[in-house]
Design goal:
The complex is a heterodimer of chains A (400) and B (157). Chain A is 42% helix and 13% strand. Chain A has 400 residues and is an alpha/beta fold. The radius of gyration of chain A is 22 Å and the shape is globular. In chain A, 55% of the residues are buried. In chain B, strand 3 and strand 4 form a beta hairpin. The chains are: A alpha/beta (400), B alpha+beta (157). Chains A and B meet through strand 5 and helix 11 of A and helix 2, helix 4 and helix 5 of B. Bound molecules: flavin mononucleotide, iron/sulfur cluster and FE2/S2 (inorganic) cluster. The site of flavin mononucleotide has 21 residues of chain A, from strand 4 and helix 14.
Chain lengths: 400, 157
């Protein structure tokens, strides 16, 4: 796959040669690599921000002959498309990271779970894996390392957002409905086929490849104390230059808006439909785990946009994508959507809307998985931050 | 279904089971291949998959019903999926949707009379920086205008 254009960046988009990370890793002990990753303070890029070194250490420590490395390429959060760019333009970073993961945790099989909507990438990715096999970067005794065998296969999703949740993803791989599991046990102990499994985001693996080559300290020099390194942001909406940007954590929202040529911005949705909506008065907040966290989705809305319409679009998404397994999420999202429609039609009462906000808070704690726990975020933040325009008796239409 | 067709389908599913194996985790890849080939997974196909993987047909059906890209009733030869999520919505999804509906004479959720095209909405396709976006089967198209969308639809065979 040819690169459409050469991207430049400080960390993820910095120079890297295919196989470099694998070869470097295989000269070291597992412990040394884990220390390097720990020093980098890398946190998972899939949204939850779990420290990658800890996850890999737990999977490495789990006792089993068979373990799995899973790359989560289900990228379904509205407004996220940075994994698309990594997979199409930087497969070497992703696959090398998976091989390194296999070496560290002691797995011999990796699976890339690719969302069904990305089937158009399948051929180029399969070809890429074949090329790696030819170069002995996959297969037996990888890069001459005796006894280290590892291969990667690709499995396609089938159009279910919730399958991005790691335990639902594992259920799906096992041939079941993609319904989240109860945790514990965690996948690091009991994952795919009940074997210890590490599930990581595409960008997490890509980061590991760089860390192994350039060092944990180098990585941690970027970003902030609590959010080390840089992050890929998928930027869409009302701006002149949408696309994928690599920026250090700690970047202010206002700086980002400037960079992408956003004008008359009213709101920035950080973290996708399950994230929060940030109004103009808070554009000096920073992007990072300590403030506005995101798996990468940034959607920009200018003054002309109807925020109630935005909220309705999100709630429709969650009603459709809830797996229906637990009541708070199944019923809750439907109720929240109905509430939005009542505001639209002018048939709401403030008493009822407040009850729905409480319901949202219940969903955040009582839902079984991250979908239902985070779907009320937009409802609560949009209704709170844009109440003046939303409750103006005009169905949220601004100014009329 | 004719007996001959049934035999052919059984042969086909047996081949898939040989390819992917009989473990439960082979279920989705097998169903996905049947879906790709036939554009739906018939009752008979479900029974055969269940028999060969030694699971209950109800289980197979329940799995299919979970996934948006798998279905148990026939669809058109091609599936067009237009992204309905907010970034595409704000970039002109509605005008594109209306142009396609007018051109095909059907609404979203329906299939053309000649069975050529089924029209559906999808959620975010990961092309938000280039919206509005749609999929024709597994191909992605972006930066749509009503005119461009109709052009793409008219080229579907
Ligand atoms: C509804 C839902 C959808 C998710 N979708 C994704 C996804 O598409 N990609 C991803 O990497 N993580 C996704 N996650 C997070 C995963 O459960 C998991 O935390 C992540 O893959 C772990 O990888 P990391 O530690 O590298 O971030 C999702 C979580 C939820 C609750
Ligand atoms: S929170 Fe929603 S998506 Fe998650 S298990 Fe419950 S119903 Fe399913
Ligand atoms: S919103 Fe349409 S592709 Fe993401």
């Amino acid at each position: 796959m040819e690169k459409k254009m050469k991207r430049k960046g400080t960390v993820i988009f910095s120079e890297y040669t295919r196989g470099e990370g694998i070869k470097k890793a295989l000269q070291k002990s597992r412990e040394d690599i884990l220390l390097e990753i720990r020093e980098s303070k890398l946190k998972g890029r899939g949204g939850a921000g779990f420290p990658t070194a800890t996850k890999w250490m737990l999977t490495a420590a789990a006792k089993s002959d068979v373990k799995y490395v899973i790359c989560n390429a289900d990228e379904g959060e509205p407004g996220t498309f940075k994994d698309r760019v990594l997979l199409l333009e930087y497969p070497e970073l992703v696959f090398d990271g998976m091989v390194i993961g296999g070496y560290v945790i002691g797995a011999s099989e990796g699976i890339l779970y690719l969302r069904g909507e990305y089937e158009y990438m399948l051929k180029s990715l399969e070809d890429y894996l074949d090329a790696m096999r030819k170069d002995n970067l996959l297969g037996k005794n990888i890069a001459g390392k005796k006894g280290f065998d590892f291969d990667i296969k690709i499995r396609l999703g089938a159009g279910a957002y919730v399958c991005g949740e790691e335990t639902a993803l594992i259920e799906s791989l096992e041939g079941h409905r993609g319904e989240a599991r109860n945790r514990p046990p965690f996948p690091v102990n009991r994952g795919f086929l009940h074997k210890p499994t590490t599930v990581n985001n595409v960008e997490t693996f890509a980061s590991v490849s760089h860390i192994v080559v350039k060092g944990g300290q180098w990585y941690a020099k970027h970003g902030t104390d609590k959010s080390s390194g840089s992050k890929l942001f998928s930027i869409s909406g009302d701006c002149e230059k949408p696309g994928v940007y690599e920026l250090p954590w700690g970047t202010k929202i206002s700086e980002l808006l400037e960079l992408v040529g956003a004008k008359d911005t009213k709101a920035v949705q950080v973290g996708g439909a399950s994230g929060t909506c940030i109004p103009k008065s808070q554009f000096d907040r920073i992007l990072g785990y300590e403030d506005a966290a995101t798996g990468g989705s940034i959607m920009i809305f200018n003054e002309s946009r109807n925020m109630l319409h935005v909220l309705k679009n999100f709630m429709e998404f969650f009603v459709e994508e809830s797996c229906g397994q637990c009541t708070p999420c199944r019923i809750g999202n439907t109720k929240l959507l109905e509430g939005v429609e009542m505001i639209e039609n002018g048939t709401y009462t403030f008493g009822y809307i407040n009850k729905l906000k409480d319901l949202g808070k219940t969903m955040q704690v009582a839902s079984k998985c991250g979908l239902g726990q985070s779907s009320p975020n937009s409802f609560i933040s949009i209704l709170e931050n844009f109440k003046d325009e939303i409750f103006n008796g005009n169905g949220g239409v601004h100014g009329k | 279904m004719l007996v001959l067709e049934k035999n052919a389908l059984t042969d086909e599913i047996e081949k898939l089971v040989l390819k992917y194996g009989t473990s439960r985790s082979s279920l989705l890849p097998i169903l996905q291949d049947i879906q790709r080939e036939h554009r739906y997974i018939s009752d008979f196909a479900q029974q055969e998959v269940a028999r060969l993987l030694d699971i209950h047909p109800v289980e197979v059906n329940s799995v299919i019903s979970f996934y948006a890209f798998l279905n148990t009733t026939p669809k058109g030869k091609n599936i067009v999926r237009l992204c309905q999520t907010i970034s595409c919505d704000f970039q002109g999804k509605k005008a594109v949707a209306q142009a396609i509906e007018r051109e095909l004479g059907i609404s979203f959720g329906q299939t053309t009379k000649d069975n050529k095209i089924t029209l559906e909405y999808a959620n975010c396709l990961g092309m938000c920086d280039q919206g509005p976006a749609l999929l024709v089967n597994d191909k992605v198209y972006s930066h749509l205008t009503p005119e461009k969308a109709v052009q793409i639809i008219s080229e579907i065979k």
